[in-house]
Design brief:
The protein is α/β, with parallel strands linked by helices and 435 residues long. Helices cover 30% and strands 23% of the residues. It has 13 helices and 23 strands. Strands 13-12-11-5-2-1-15-14 form an eight-stranded parallel β-sheet. A six-stranded antiparallel β-sheet has the order 16-17-18-23-20-21. It has a three-stranded antiparallel β-sheet with strand order 6-10-9, with no helix packed on it. Strand 20 and strand 21 form a beta hairpin. It is elongated, with a radius of gyration of 23 Å. It starts with 5 loop residues before the first strand and ends with a strand. The relative contact order is 0.10.
């Protein structure tokens, strides 16, 4: 997975599905269109797809009704198997959203609780007590962070844990999935994560486990007993903030704090999921105050330590503001678009996956200025200098490159460090040192 570049699709939005599931309509087969998009995904340089929720749900996908059936608004299990087979035939791995902290009110076991209340045999699948709730069910239950349409599962219950593990086994057998992204992993019981790790690595030693984490020490969830990787929200904020404030010291500090060689650095040698936007946050083309910075911010994304992820639509500059609601961030797309930004991201992705240093190398700051940043990545004898200019003016960088000449992995152009290096406006270079 450390060599992966992810393409992130939120299917219910991407395919323009109705916002509410009526649970009676015939399947639409929309998910099959992913097969038509495979050439775009490959051209973009992505070799893994992370699908947001695909299983039957009440509305947005994170309110699961049935873990064993593809949402009828997307298609059928047979449709999704065809999609996964086609992706695998093209060398693209498949990671699904594993929503295990909570389910929707239409989940079959919770329907039984709604009907039979405290007398339900499934009561202990959830955190149910005497009392009442906002839906006037005649009992109280715990919802995720106060959202009672999302019913929190009781992950201390062996029955629940076994049920979820059986579902994952089914997904592996039926669709051949390569991994899971665990929704709100920071809420999951740590013992459950350990059990999940053991089960998934039993299914396949290279089964990838990614967790959604927002804050704290990521090592709590990302370690040899639990998850392989987590979402790097610390650097997500640092990325756009550094460009918007003209302060590369912010992101360079975060990167060194996380991946530097000093003993106190937190995640050296680990591979967090890196992103400039996703289905939960404002699109990068909207949040950047200077749109010229789109090229260098993607350059930084693909040059920094981590596993890069591109959110559908952002590769051609799609905009969307979180303040206008989640649906704004998850619009329908008739077919992928391609422009200069798309070609730039593709060049970055191919350079990234072709470089040992960029995929899994060390990190060292070389030059930090308010709008410029140069750092070194090193692995197995390969040195790459990543140079970023977030300014609309050229910048003459003078620093000790440790070599005289280099080749730019993005363009293939030769570079001579003698006499200084000019960074063009809004530019990024991946200079691989030659001698």
């Amino acid at each position: 997975f450390e060599n992966a570049v992810f393409y992130h699709i939120y299917p219910i939005g991407y395919f323009g599905c109705p916002r509410q599931n009526d649970f009676t309509s015939e399947p639409t087969h929309k998910i099959l269109r992913v097969i038509d998009d495979i050439p775009h995904i490959k051209e973009l340089g992505c070799n893994a797809v992370y699908f947001g929720p695909v299983f039957e749900s009440s509305a947005h996908g994170y309110d699961t009704a049935d873990y064993t059936k593809i949402d009828r608004r997307l298609g059928t299990n047979e449709d999704f198997k065809k999609v996964c087979d086609a992706l695998h035939e093209n060398g693209i791995r498949v990671v699904l959203d594993g929503v295990f902290n909570h389910v929707g009110r239409d989940f079959w076991a919770f329907r039984d609780v709604r009907e039979n209340k405290l007398g339900s045999a499934k009561k202990d699948w959830f955190h149910v007590r005497e009392g009442n709730d906002g839906y006037n069910d005649g009992f109280w239950y715990e919802g995720w962070e106060g959202h009672y349409e999302l019913v929190k599962l009781n992950l201390y219950n062996p029955e629940v844990k076994q049920y979820l593990k059986d579902c994952i086994t089914g997904w592996k057998k039926e669709f051949g999935i390569d991994g899971l992204r665990l929704d709100v992993a920071y809420c999951l019981d740590l013992n459950f994560l350990k059990e999940l790790h053991g089960h998934c690595k039993w299914l396949a030693e290279d089964f990838f486990l990614l967790g959604e984490t927002l804050h704290g020490d990521y090592n709590k969830w990302m370690n040899p007993e639990m998850l392989d990787s987590v979402t790097n929200y610390e650097c997500y904020k640092g990325l756009y903030s550094s460009f918007n404030t003209g302060n590369m010291h912010e992101i360079s500090y975060s990167l060194n704090r996380q991946f530097g060689s000093e003993q106190w650095c937190l995640y050296t040698g680990k591979h967090l999921l890196s992103f400039v936007d996703n289905h939960d946050v404002t699109r990068i083309a909207t949040i950047l105050t200077d749109k010229g910075c789109l090229r260098p911010i993607y350059g930084l994304l693909f040059g920094m330590p981590g596993v890069p992820s591109v959110y559908y639509g952002s590769e051609w500059g799609m905009e969307g503001d979180k303040r206008n609601g989640d649906p704004t961030l998850r619009p329908a797309v008739e077919k992928p678009e391609e422009n200069d930004l798309t070609a730039w991201i593709a060049a970055l992705a191919h350079a990234h996956t072709g470089s040992k240093a960029l995929c899994r190398g060390s990190y060292r700051n070389v030059l930090v200025q308010p709008k410029q940043l140069i750092f070194e990545r090193y692995a197995d004898g390969e040195r790459v200098l990543v140079a970023i200019n977030a300014d609309g003016n050229p910048f003459d960088a003078h620093f000790d490159a440790g070599c005289g000449r280099a080749v730019d992995l993005i363009t293939g152009a030769d570079h001579d460090f003698g006499g200084g290096s000019t960074l063009e406006p809004y530019s990024c270079h991946f200079w691989k040192c030659e001698r």
